[in-house]
Design brief:
Length: 287
């Protein structure tokens, strides 16, 4: 059964580790992430962006697939199904479809409007036992066609949003989505520290986990980050393994063209990346 992410992140914050949110794109992706979580006895959050939801034939299809796998694969670790960077409308669609967690990304609204809409969603989610993530300060890079500049959030605005009753908060601290450019300035630990000082026990979320050096990840966790989003890194692992299979001509040998064979190296590569991240974040054995 899917669970809200509130409890697992409260435990993570108290235990000084982080739970990975791994974005899914299809059946192979979902199965790879769930099996890796189970094998490593780790809680896990499956992230679904609006674009990925559309690609997988809609939120209801995603809910059906994930719930089916939890049962058929005997997944017993805590699993949350989470809408990533949801618009106001998408939040309601996912609540309706059966997601157990949502992120309302109101960071592009003026802060007053972000507060109003977040407040409304806090109530709706609380009634249904769904966890809610909010965002302050846009996160750089490209996410479904929206390009942010990687600004640092205003700690006072973070406090205002945190006080609305959300379950966890994404605050921009110089992190960006996708690959980091050569001249990236690094994470602003000063901002992270200031946000944590004001928001107390609130679990903080680090988006754009791909390519952040390990020492920065560990420092961010020590400063209150309890959820780290990983998306691009699994895509790169999958593409690399799939390319190697094709380049080696394996699809031309025997029944190597069978999708169950052709997509297997990519799925194994996702599993390896997810395991590596769970070890780095410290969530192994924490289910
Ligand atoms: Zn993000």
């Amino acid at each position: 059964m899917l669970v809200s992410a509130a409890e697992m992140l409260k435990k993570a914050k108290a235990g000084h580790y982080a739970v990975g949110q791994f974005n899914i794109n299809n059946l192979e992706w979902t199965k790879a992430v769930l099996l890796t979580a189970q094998e490593n006895n780790s809680p896990v959050i499956l992230g679904v962006s609006e674009g990925a939801g559309k690609y997988m034939a809609g939120y209801k299809t995603v809910v059906g697939m994930v719930n089916g796998m939890l049962e058929e694969l005997n997944i017993t670790v805590p699993v949350a199904l989470h809408l990533d960077h949801g618009s106001y409308d998408a939040c309601y669609k996912c609540i309706e479809a059966g997601f157990s967690s949502i992120m309302f990304d109101g960071s592009h609204y003026p802060i007053e409007e972000n507060i109003e809409k977040t407040k409304e969603l806090v109530k709706v989610c609380a009634d249904k036992g769904i966890s809610l993530e909010a965002e302050v300060g846009s996160i750089g890079g490209e996410e479904d066609g929206v390009i942010g500049m990687g600004e640092c959030a205003d700690p006072k605005e973070c406090k205002a949003i945190a006080d609305l009753g959300i379950d966890f908060l994404a605050a921009g601290i110089g992190n960006i989505h996708g690959k980091y450019p050569e001249n990236w300035a690094g994470l602003s630990f000063e901002t992270l520290d200031a946000v944590q000082q004001l928001t107390g026990d609130m679990p903080l979320v680090l988006h754009g986990g791909t390519g952040i050096p390990e020492d920065m990840i560990k420092k961010a966790i020590s400063l209150g980050v309890s959820k780290i989003n990983v998306n691009t890194e699994c895509q790169l692992s999958f593409a690399d393994a799939t390319r190697k299979y094709i380049e080696a001509g394996k699809d031309l040998e025997g029944k190597g063209f069978d999708p169950r064979k052709l997509l297997a190296p990519g799925a194994d590569a996702i599993k390896a990346t997810v395991k590596e991240k769970m070890e780095l974040f410290g969530s192994v054995g924490k289910a």
